[in-house]
């Protein structure tokens, strides 16, 4: 998953087809390198995978095996996409597609189309992204591959959201959600719920965003996806704050703060403390706001974040003025915490 994209991976069946039964030495070495590259990609060793797959591709080219060249190119498209080399992903995947023009390997075409479409989305070329992902979706439907339909629909939704067409984005994401629930795929469902929440949030429909985010957090926690849960809790707090439900916003910010401390994520902890202070101010509880801002100030100094330190001092000054504690406010204005 990259920026909420669901990528098309080879399943174990298609991997098993990579090694032919009768092999020449060159084919044997190329197949070995291809399998090695796949394993390295799945282990997250992307530079090593790139090297193995490129060597494999060269050997398959030397013996003229077009089908295996296409497999190597599709994996190279996936690896380069995952590492953020979107132009490289497009180049490899389009080479793969050109080799597959006259073949019936629809699964490989589907994967290559997905990589191209997703890469174009990150390059903000929305029309091209939609063109390739629509072709990908048609193949998933032709193959009746529901798992890949989930990915294609989700990714089309992301393109439409990125282009500002939130209504169309929600339509695709909703279709994706129905299928992923049918498959009982909790991991995929978590991704789609988050994306639906984000789309409704972008439309300023905070109640609907909250409904999807709340379901997403439950799944993220059950899957032990702590960082994902932390991000969604932040969005939940912000949505409740936007609705003026400051008490509920505080609850979600506190949940995020607890998670951040559990995983020692200082940046999320600092953000949560700032959000909690602002929400407490909105409720008129300046004493509690000051407590959170003081913790934020200490943390900002600890991680040497000058911008956050200055923000914390400014919020502390304002909160002290609101309480009529002008002496303390002056100390914060000078950057000197009281009792230091």
Task: Furnish the topology, listing elements before pairings.
Elements: H1 12-16, H2 25-42, H3 46-63, H4 66-82, H5 86-99, H6 106-122, H7 126-142, H8 146-162, H9 166-182, H10 186-202, H11 206-222, H12 226-242, H13 246-262, H14 266-282, H15 286-302, H16 306-323, H17 326-333
Helix pairs in contact: 2-3, 2-4, 3-4, 4-5, 4-6, 5-6, 6-7, 6-8, 7-8, 8-9, 8-10, 9-10, 10-11, 11-12, 12-13, 12-14, 13-14, 14-15, 14-16, 15-16, 16-17
List keywords for this structure.
17 helices; 340 residues
The separation of the N and C termini measures: 46 Å
In what range is the share of β-strand residues?
Answer: under 5%
Q: What is the gyration radius calculated from CA atoms?
A: 25 Å
The assigned structural class equals mainly alpha
Instruction: List low-confidence stretches.
Output: 10-23
SSE ordering:
HHHHHHHHHHHHHHHHH
User: How does the major sheet shape up?
Assistant: none
Number of DSSP strands? 0
Q: Work out the helix count.
A: 17
Q: Indicate the overall shape.
A: elongated
Q: How helical, in percent, are the residues?
A: over 70%
Average the pLDDT over all residues and give the rounded result: 91
């Amino acid at each position: 998953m990259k920026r909420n994209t669901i990528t098309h991976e080879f399943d174990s069946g298609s991997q098993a087809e990579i090694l032919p039964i009768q092999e020449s030495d060159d084919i044997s070495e190329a197949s070995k390198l291809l399998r090695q590259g796949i394993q390295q990609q799945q282990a997250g060793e992307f530079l090593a995978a790139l090297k193995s797959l490129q060597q494999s591709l060269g050997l398959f080219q030397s013996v003229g095996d077009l089908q295996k060249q296409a497999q190597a190119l599709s994996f190279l498209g996936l690896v380069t996409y995952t590492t953020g080399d979107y132009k490289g992903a497009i180049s490899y995947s389009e080479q793969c597609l050109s080799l597959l023009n006259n073949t019936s390997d629809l699964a490989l075409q589907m994967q290559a189309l997905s990589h191209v479409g997703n890469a174009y989305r990150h390059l903000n070329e929305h029309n091209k992204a939609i063109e390739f992902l629509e072709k990908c979706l048609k193949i998933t439907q032709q193959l009746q591959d529901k798992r890949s339909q989930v990915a294609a629909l989700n990714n089309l939704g992301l393109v439409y959201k990125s282009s500002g067409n939130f209504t169309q984005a929600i339509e695709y994401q909703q279709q994706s959600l129905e299928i992923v629930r049918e498959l009982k795929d909790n991991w995929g469902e978590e991704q789609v719920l988050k994306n639906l929440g984000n789309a409704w949030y972008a439309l300023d429909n905070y109640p609907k965003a909250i409904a999807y985010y709340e379901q997403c957090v439950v799944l993220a926690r059950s899957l032990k996806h702590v960082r994902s849960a932390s991000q969604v809790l932040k969005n939940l707090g912000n949505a409740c704050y936007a609705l003026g439900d400051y008490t509920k916003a505080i609850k979600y910010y506190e949940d995020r703060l607890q998670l951040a401390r559990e995983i020692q994520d200082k940046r999320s902890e600092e953000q949560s403390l700032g959000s909690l202070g602002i929400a407490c101010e909105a409720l008129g509880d300046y004493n509690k706001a000051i407590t959170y801002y003081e913790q934020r100030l200490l943390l900002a100094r600890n991680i040497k974040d000058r911008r956050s330190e200055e923000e914390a001092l400014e919020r502390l000054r304002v909160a002290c003025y609101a309480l009529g504690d002008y002496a303390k406010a002056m100390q914060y204005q000078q950057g000197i915490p009281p009792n230091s």
